[in-house]
Amino acid sequence: MIDGPYFVFTLLGVLGTGLVAGVFCAFSTFVMKGLAALPPAQGVAAMQAINVTALMPAFMVVFVGSAVLCTVLAVVTFVLWPDEGTVELLLGSALYLFGSFGVTMVANVPRNEALAKMDPGTPEAAAYWPTFVSEWTMWNHARMVASAAAAISYVLALT
Length: 159
Known about the structure:
Protein name: DUF1772 domain-containing protein
Transmembrane segments: 6-31, 52-81, 87-109
Largest sheet: none
Keywords: Membrane, Transmembrane, Transmembrane helix
Pfam families: Anthrone_oxy (PF08592)
Organism: Streptomyces sporangiiformans
């Protein structure tokens, strides 16, 4: 069984990846649907405001902190190669680092940056908005599933 500081790190991994999964779940299940129901100018403006607010410490500590913690767990697991939980710890770390953090960097952030450059009331923004919502939400589903699977994997490592 995992114990000591390693147990604490794994437990924090469960918490962090689970919290991030919850945030992404909220966006996938109702936030993006609510924004999509608004007139494009309002939806674009609201998403731009959300994207600015998401960069504040309250979310970034959990999101980036979980990535750092997953990296630490992966490295420590490779170094210690424990008798139990090795596969689950490495899988959980990979799921979060690639499926959540990585997808965010290569799929969601570029779309956010493109949207940030647009004036919400322009025809360009109105034309881009449905594509943004569809593509951004599709990638958000992927990172939600990856974050939840990472949390489950870490829980399994503790059992």
